[in-house]
């Protein structure tokens, strides 16, 4: 589904990604973890072209992300993206937030878009909030709306960039529960997160990054059982305790 080969990226003279390679199969749940500034968010943003890269190759469902001829808007419509700060339109109701992209990008009728959007709003447990504005919802509710909005576009894969890091601790589980449900339904997911409980529960693959390099690229059991690098062991010890 997603193939990343020898990807490197620079901001000016500063290299943020160095020869990163991994692949994500259909139905995989891949957790990307590591210390702040290790390149995790940059890596998943290269997958849908939100961050350009200077070297290497990324293909999504056989489409080359770095090819100048690729229609990135069309590609992004097929890859759901959930950011840490929700990115909902504050001046639109929840229902309008859910339908706008479907109408403008996918060409759906308002009726069709509304039906699809409300189906996923119900899926995340917020159907009763459809006429409210984002500012009237809690952070956890807004993030669940953001997930519903991404799902309304019928994505082939979902990218999550630290989806719980801006939330109060009490709201984290309501978002993680939705993500666990998606994983169990077979959604292909790449998730940047520090939530190791989530990783233990649903990930089948873990990528550990440090200083722009993929240090560990292994199964969940290998990562939590016999991580090979001192850096990953040190990170796990700090974050779990």
TL;DR?
Belongs to the ABC transporter superfamily. With 241 residues, the protein is α/β, with parallel strands linked by helices. Helix content is 39%, strand content 25%.
What's the SSE blueprint?
Layout: E1 2-11, E2 14-24, E3 29-33, H1 40-47, E4 55-60, E5 63-64, H2 72-76, E6 79-82, H3 94-106, H4 110-123, H5 139-151, E7 157-161, H6 169-184, E8 189-192, H7 196-202, E9 205-210, E10 213-219, H8 220-226, H9 230-240
Parallel strand pairs: 3-8, 3-9, 6-7, 7-8
Antiparallel strand pairs: 1-2, 1-4, 4-5, 9-10
Helix pairs in contact: 3-4, 3-5, 4-5, 5-6
Number of helices: 9
Mean pLDDT: 93
Distance between the termini: 35 Å
CATH class placement of the largest domain: Alpha Beta
Number of strands: 10
Summarize the amount of helix as a percent range.
25-40%
Order of secondary-structure elements? EEEHEEHEHHHEHEHEEHH
Structural class by secondary-structure content: alpha/beta
Low-confidence stretches: none
Name given to the CATH architecture of the largest domain: 3-Layer(aba) Sandwich
CATH fold type of the largest domain: Rossmann fold
GO cellular component, one term: plasma membrane
Main location: membrane
Protein name: L-glutamate ABC transporter ATP-binding protein /L-aspartate ABC transporter ATP-binding protein
Subcellular location: Cell membrane
